[in-house]
Amino acid sequence: MWEVVGEAYTVLRVRLGRQRSAEVALPVLCWAHDSGVHMLDTAQDDHERAADLLQRYADHPLSYVDALVLAIAERHRVGEVITVDARNFKPVRLTHRLAVTIV
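Given the sequence above, the corresponding structure tokens read:
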């Protein structure tokens, strides 16, 4: 989903880019475009479920994109989500079991 690519671009640019240069982050966009990875589209129901998750887990540091990833994983019954920060995902309970792998 392109929202995740956008978040990865921003994190790399802000945390690793000298003077917040786009140079360090642009390869993320190129990889996403050129890799052939299938990007799942978001539906209105996904956004509504993400809002529900944010409200239900308001006391956890869950970002909107995190909640959207979880909503899409739930809809597609994805078995595993790969992340750099599992702390945000662990407390969330979906309608099916979801493995969270940290890279």
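The mean pLDDT is 84. Try to locate this feature in the token string yourself.
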